[in-house]
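Input.
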Amino acid sequence: MSQSSRPKKIRVIGGGLAGPEAALQAASLGCQVTLYEMRPHRSTEAHQTSDFAELVCSNSLKSESEFSAPWLLKQEMRQAGSFLLLDADATAVPAGHALAVDRQQFSMRVAARIAAEPRITVLREEVTLLDEADDDTITILASGPLTSAPLAAELQRLTGSHHLAFYDSISPIVDATTIDMEKVYFAARWDKGTADYINCPFTKEEYDCFLDALTSAEKIEAKAWEELPADRRPEHLAAAPAPAASQLQYFEGCLPIEETARRGRDTLRFGPMKPAGLTNPKTGRWPYAAVQLRQENLRADSYNLVGFQNHLKFGEQARVLRLIPGLEHATFLRFGQIHRNTYIHAPSLLTETLQLKQHPRILIAGQLSGVEGYTESIASGLLAGRYAAALAHGRQPTPAPRASANGSLSHYITHAETKRFQPANITFDLLPPLEEDLRKRIRDKKERHRLQCERALAAWSAWLAQG
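Output.
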């Protein structure tokens, strides 16, 4: 094989979720891949380990309910041979109708898979330069929402665009042995799946007491890493003042509970503390409100508080969260936190094949591209790895079909209204609607979703068959 006919090398930056999936996909398609991860030499504000595929926030990859949007996305990924989803399935813990994993076992399997792939070379070092003029290398930038300041500044130089930033959150984790099991009960909402969630039921009086304590609790106004020092900020942020907690640009899909509570006394009861479908076997009724706990690992010795991310001081968290029935004497293994989350303005920068418009040998994958969620990040890495492999072999990649969940997610981030662009999870709103005659004839939403899923899977299978 001549030098000119050899596939280009692929460089993947980031060892989170999108990066390893992209590296494994490209390697499986015959490409030599170098995977860069800066941890442990330089950590981030939220990571606790230097492991590949560390799940920072929760351990859930969302619903496995048939014909739901998250189910559809995962089904497409399984058909395409997603390596990380295979490891997620192998390390699943009981979570009702959701796919949740043992974080440690999941990361260990991903690391072993990477180590066993001879076409992948791992370099534990920070990347601070993106050489757009390198004709022999395809780069996938999957450095995530906590991209280091030097690399963020380099990306800004390359794109000529300001980043958008918001603040994402981490839920608390409680020691299972310290939960008062006499006060709680196992149930799945509407009895979907198995009864794997611990439910902490509230009376109205208990809810009012909890809400008053929550809304008056002392918040963390700003952490040192939220107020990035000038020498670690991208140039356009160097002179920016630290944001006050009340001014942080939270992602609407992941609001801290204290922010949700301030929107009305019943807001939490229609959000993370929704009691609907959670019949208490002791009373035969739904509680006034409920907090759900989801199993954190295979040993079932810890549980996370579903949707209970917050920005309170740790001492305040302990005081407030112990007002939850069943958690009066709880030991918290991790408190809630807020972390910076950075993403590019994808509608103006990316093509549907995740390539930078001005620098097509550089692809952006994962949360940095504007997708939100674990599964969505892995899916983005899957596509980026396949697209990069096509480029490395001298072919222009074909975008995932618009009718599919993967294609619809990519279409959203690259075609969204530019002034209001925010990261997105996969939802049916992103998929093309059914034809008008079907919409008029079929009123049942579940049946519509089933037809959308069938159409998406057919389009996805045809795209895969085209190679």
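The longest strand covers residues 164-170.
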